[in-house]
Amino acid sequence: MQNFVFGSPFTSQKLPLKNAAGFIGSEQLPDCLKGCEVVVIPAGVPRKPGMTRDDLFNTNATIVANLTSACAKHCPEAMICIIANPVNSTIPITSELFKKHGVYNPNRIFGVTTLDIVRANTFVAELKGLDPARVNVPVIGGHAGKTIIPLISQCTPKVEFPQDQLETLTGRIQEAGTEVVKAKAGAGSATLSMAYAGARFVFSVLDAMNGKEGVIECSFVRKNGIEKNLGIGKISPYEEKMIAEAMTELKASIKKGEEFVKSMK
Ligand code: LMR
């Protein structure tokens, strides 16, 4: 948690818009990336029922490494938004590769965890009869099981649940991706909701880059976000316990990503 903290209001910066263009294949990757200011990487294979996100490591690590190496070479200044799982390891992979290329800036590499926030907002709203668009639950940590830590004590508007209901709700948020994978029965994982969450995150990044003040999104990042690290604020003893429990898995996933890059030729 020391290395990876969450929550970043973005700073203002005016950037010119570019025309849209299509590219295909690894040979066109350099041209595709040159001049990019924001890169979103949803690439990789999805889970099948019974798999953890970490089970995707062997396949997706190489895919993400190839793409982010190309980003480090061709658009080192871009905001890199990684959706590809396991996010808890693909962010360290990206960070290590940017370091290898001597262009690392922790303020520009983001693990997109917005779907956890969207889910937390939706489930809280359902239980309390609220409009999900007006509920905001910060979710910190990573993007896998127990490393997903919803801070329901910081929800706006303020909500309260008896401990047993709080634990059930927390568990549902943590396992919501797995719920979708099971329901799709081998046909992949969340698609539309992930597209919605990814779009929300990227629109926030663009808003902030275009000068909008006070844009705040939770994300899996190393150290500070772009402008200021909001820290994790005042949390409940239950949330403190969840953070402590998440640390071992989170550290192992981070190390796995870092070791992967060390082992690359
Ligand atoms: C999700 O949370 O839906 C995604 O990370 C996909 C998955 O495998 O759960």
Automatic annotation (TrEMBL):
SUPFAM superfamilies membership: LDH C-terminal domain-like, NAD(P)-binding Rossmann-fold domains
Keywords: NAD, Oxidoreductase, Tricarboxylic acid cycle
InterPro entries: Lactate/malate_DH_C (IPR022383), Lactate/malate_DH_N (IPR001236), Lactate_DH/Glyco_Ohase_4_C (IPR015955), Malate_DH_AS (IPR001252), Malate_DH_type1 (IPR010097), NAD(P)-bd_dom_sf (IPR036291)
Pfam families for the chain: Ldh_1_C (PF02866), Ldh_1_N (PF00056)
GO biological process: malate metabolic process; tricarboxylic acid cycle
Annotated Lactate/malate dehydrogenase N-terminal domain residues: 24-111
UniProt KW NAD keyword: yes
Superkingdom of origin: Eukaryota
KW Chloroplast (keyword) present: no
Gene Ontology CC, one term: mitochondrion
Species, as recorded: Chelonia mydas (Green sea-turtle)
Protein name: Malate dehydrogenase
Family: Belongs to the LDH/MDH superfamily. MDH type 1 family.
Domain Lactate/malate dehydrogenase C-terminal, residue spans: 113-261
EC number(s) recorded for this UniProt protein: 1.1.1.37
